[in-house]
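This part of the workshop introduces the protein records we will be handling. An example says more than a description, so a record of this kind follows.
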Amino acid sequence: MFPLYDENRPSKRPYVNYVLILLNVISFFFFFMQGTLAFEKEIWNLGVTPIYILRGQRLWTLLTSIFMHADIIHIAGNMVYLWVFGDNVEDTLGHTRYLLFYLVGGIVASFAHIASTLLSAFTSPLPYFIYELGIPSVGASGAISAVLGAYLLLYPRARIKTLVVYIFITIVSVPAYYYLGIWFLYQLLMGLVSLTGLFSSIAFWAHIGGFVYGLGIVKAFNMKPRKKTVVVPEERSVRPLVSPWVRTPLVDVSVEADRVIILAALLGVGERDIKIDIFEREVVISAEHEDLRFFKRVVLPVSVLPRVENFSYRNGVLSFTLYRIV
């Protein structure tokens, strides 16, 4: 299984996590591009070698080793794990505390590895022979393991998109407690095997130590995931963009000898909202107020003058007079 990304997005940008990834990549390629011999020399110089640390020498390598990697696969795998899990842990701890947590986690992991090499003196087939004491250890795995331990307690139910390669290649969504639980059990199993004297190029006890440190810090300080602010859109009344519903008013036309009297029901509008257009044998009555609209075209049986007389609008009833053309 290989993690691709988690579905739990942080509330703030993880700038420290970005910088850590960048520093690891830059330092690796800076030394790697100098050639094989120079690269191996720097691993010996900057990697944490147990025998020197036990003597109190070259203590700076406890930090420099965190930013050194053995090969392309080594750094690629570590940076993917840091990218997937580091952002949310930084979101909870904050930038400064996350950086301190990460660096201390790497140092603790190195001491866990040194302790395991000493323990192997009593568990390996060759008593008191510790081959790994003189071999440098490099990589951010221990510090990243601390991040994984913290993530497990902070976000146990977060879903991890995972690439699974087994007969078929597929991508599944796995809960963090399951993914990281399996990961830790594998590290623990291989760590126990390494104590039997079988040499391994992987410092499994650095992973175990870093992971336990991450669990312990979160538990000891009772850390909780940062509550994410949910932005609720402000409710506003929005006038629809569609045309208002057009109503046809009731209209009554009374024709007399010299004039035409027109009555129209326009409930809900104001006097200023009413418009009257007069043609020789036609009258157009319209009114609009907010979403209320009236429209009526009235054909007259006689010709009239284009002038409104006796205009009145009361209680929703419009009345006006038009004089006939003689």
In short: The domain at 2-220 is CATH 1.20.1540.10 (Rhomboid-like fold).
